[in-house]
């Protein structure tokens, strides 16, 4: 009941505040709100987030989706903190799309080892601090087909762990301060009708990024991501959304760039990083439906696992999670939602997640 009362108070304040800040006579909407949530990784966390939603063309232009720039600051009861700036900007007629991510993170977290056979009692705390910046620009080359350029820089300038422990004995790179620098390409096909709450269409994207010592990286490795999403209108305003996601790395990959299961956008309910390896694949399905006023619900479930040459993908080792959540629309025109999800797995963990925007 305590968790519910906090959530309801946040919902009320967010609704009132967002209504005051929206300006329907102009092309820009401003939003600022407090953030209170609890996840397996953080315990209770608090902070604030602010965003600007706008169109680079006339507000009635249906060919160009709404752009968003969002800044967030989070502090947790476990001594972690994160400050981030994210942007997605759709230029006129979506001939260009620009993504930008940057963050500073100080995040003590648990480590169980590498692969699918790790045990709960192996959990060990380690500390890292990092700065990351990653711009990505895409150009339309034919209708909904885009090609893009990616840059990625990450500086891990603090790593601390217990000598002789699980982290120290793991056969991985990245146990001391390092930096990675990479560049890559993307190819995507996007027919979604909305950016935040699609009701129909496909999104398919493949990105390939190479990290090399010749451009300042401490390690040589490559990263390949395949992201496939499908949205189908069912009846009334109910929507089925499905995502297949595969993350693969090759070469001397540092541990902070390993694939990790869990978190608010993956298999919700798992501690992010409970399972780590060089690769991971997941499939997630969601049923999204409105209830009344600005409220909606979402039911979700997913399966997947990490894998590598040493730990191949085996169907008997599939991990799963399921759950549900509420949605509160904070920008009516573009269906930008406050998301409250509870994910569950009966063996490993469960988690409550509060954030802005859908998981995919």
Shape: globular
CATH topology: Porin
Fourth-level CATH superfamily: membrane protein fhac: a member of the omp85/tpsb transporter family
* CATH architecture name: Beta Barrel
Order of helices and strands: HEEEEEEEEHEEEEEEEEEEE
Q: Determine the strand fraction and express it as a percent band.
A: over 45%
How many distinct helices? 2
Computed Rg: 20 Å
Pick out the low-confidence regions.
Answer: 1-25
What is the C-level CATH assignment?
Mainly Beta
Structural class per helix/strand content? mainly beta
Distance N terminus to C terminus? 29 Å
The major beta sheet can be summarized as: 17 strands, antiparallel
Helix content: under 10%
What is the arithmetic mean of pLDDT? 88
Count of the domains: 1
How many E-type strands? 19
What do you see in this structure?
It is a single chain. This protein has helices spanning 2-21, 166-169, and strands at 28-39, 43-54, 67-76, 81-90, 96-106, 109-111, 124-142, 145-160, 178-190, 201-211, 221-233, 239-251, 259-260, 276-277, 279-292, 295-307, 319-331, 336-345, 349-356. Mean pLDDT is 88; it is low at 1-25. The radius of gyration is 20 Å and the shape is globular. The longest helix has 20 residues, at 2-21. The protein is mainly β and 360 residues long. The protein has one domain: Porin.
């Amino acid at each position: 009941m305590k968790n519910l009362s906090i959530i309801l108070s946040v919902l009320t304040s967010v609704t009132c505040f967002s209504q005051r800040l929206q300006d329907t006579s102009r092309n820009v909407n401003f939003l600022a709100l407090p953030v209170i949530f609890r996840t397996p990784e953080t315990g209770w966390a608090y902070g604030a987030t602010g965003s600007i939603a706008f169109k680079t063309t006339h507000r009635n232009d249906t060919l160009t989706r709404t752009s968003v720039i969002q800044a967030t600051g989070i502090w947790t009861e476990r001594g972690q903190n994160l400050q981030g700036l994210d942007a997605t900007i759709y230029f006129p007629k979506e001939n260009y799309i620009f993504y930008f991510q940057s963050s500073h993170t100080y995040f003590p977290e648990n480590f169980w080892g590498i692969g699918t056979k790790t045990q709960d009692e192996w959990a060990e705390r380690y500390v890292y601090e990092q700065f990351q910046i990653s711009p990505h620009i895409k150009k339309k080359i034919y209708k909904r087909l885009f090609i893009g350029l990616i840059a990625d820089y990450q500086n891990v300038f603090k790593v601390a762990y217990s000598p002789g422990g699980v982290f120290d004995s793991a056969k991985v790179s990245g146990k001391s301060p390092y930096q990675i620098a990479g560049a890559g390409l993307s190819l995507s096909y996007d027919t979604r009708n909305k950016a935040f709450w699609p009701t129909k269409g496909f999104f398919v994207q493949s990105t390939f990024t190479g990290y090399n010592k010749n451009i300042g990286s401490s390690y040589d490795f490559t990263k390949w991501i395949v992201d496939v999403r499908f949205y189908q209108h069912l009846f009334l305003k109910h929507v089925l959304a499905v995502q297949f996601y595969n993350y693969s790395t090759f070469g001397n990959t540092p541990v902070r760039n390993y694939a990790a299961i869990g978190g608010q956008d993956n298999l919700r309910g798992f501690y992010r990083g409970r399972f780590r390896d060089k690769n991971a694949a997941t499939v997630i399905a969601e049923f999204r439906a409105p209830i009344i006023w600005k409220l909606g619900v979402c039911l979700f479930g997913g399966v997947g696992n990490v894998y590598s040459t040493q730990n191949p993908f085996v169907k008997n080792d599939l991990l799963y999670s399921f759950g549900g959540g509420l949605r509160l629309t904070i920008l009516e025109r573009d269906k930008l939602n406050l998301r409250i999800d509870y994910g569950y797995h009966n063996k490993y963990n469960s988690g409550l997640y509060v954030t802005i925007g859908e998981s995919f």
